[in-house]
Amino acid sequence: MKTIDHMIKQLVSGGQSGVDRAALDAAIAAGVKIGGWCPKTRKAEDGVIAEIYTLNETPSAEYDQRTEWNVRDSDGTLLIVRGTIFGGSLNTKNCCSHYNKPLLVVDISKTSNLDEVIDWISSNNVYILNVAGPRESHCKGIYDIAKTFMTDLFHIPINELNTQLTRSTDDESC
After folding, report:
1. What is the 3-state secondary structure (H, E, C) of 21-83?
2. Residues 6+ apart with CB under 8 A from 147
3. 121-132 burial string, b = 16+ CB within 10 Å, else e?
4. First-to-last CA distance in the chain?
């Protein structure tokens, strides 16, 4: 039985709290190779990014450089948001445009179709997937929702993708 984790050779992310960390944790649990760039000194809003996340440090401690390099070095970016795109997520979207890289925005406050994500990964030949989105302090609860979404995505059999995944939240956007 083929699943999405057989299509993705590596998941990259910046290691920030929230969506970044959720994607990395889901990938580790699914046995998918992880990597990517993080700021110098492994800086994140909740402290130092743990060594379990095999990320390379950029020369700069600024978040923008790791965002740009993760977009640049991946085949496509899955941007997981809840409502409005802002802050670092907006920068990610702009980097995708600058590098002419495929981008799929999934708003998890709405019904998210896993078939659409699989089709996007397949049609864009995404083997190195960058996953980004808001940090936990900017979007309370986003870690748990994004981790569930990514876990479902990695473990759902590709030939059984007729079900839509619905996420209900207290807030429609962050």
Report:
1. HHHHHHHHHHCCCEECEECHHHEECCEECCCCCCCEECCCCCHHHHHHHHHHCCCEEEEEECC
2. 22, 23, 25, 26
3. beeeebebbbbb
4. 37
Give per-residue pLDDT as tens, 117-160.
Answer: 989 999 999 999 999 999 999 999 999 999 999 998 987 544 44
pLDDT, tens only, 20-59:
999 999 999 988 999 999 999 999 999 999 999 999 999 9
- Give the tokens for residue 83: 């409502």
Answer yes or no: are the C-beta atoms of 44 and 17 closer than 8 Å.
Answer: yes
Quickly name the fold that domain 4-165 has: Rossmann fold (3.40.50)
Q: What is the pTM of this model?
A: 0.88
Gap between the Cα atoms of 48 and 114, Å rounded: 32
Q: Where are the domains of the chain?
A: 4-165
Query: Letter for the amino acid at 56?
Result: N
d(CA 133, CA 143) in angstroms, rounded, equals 10
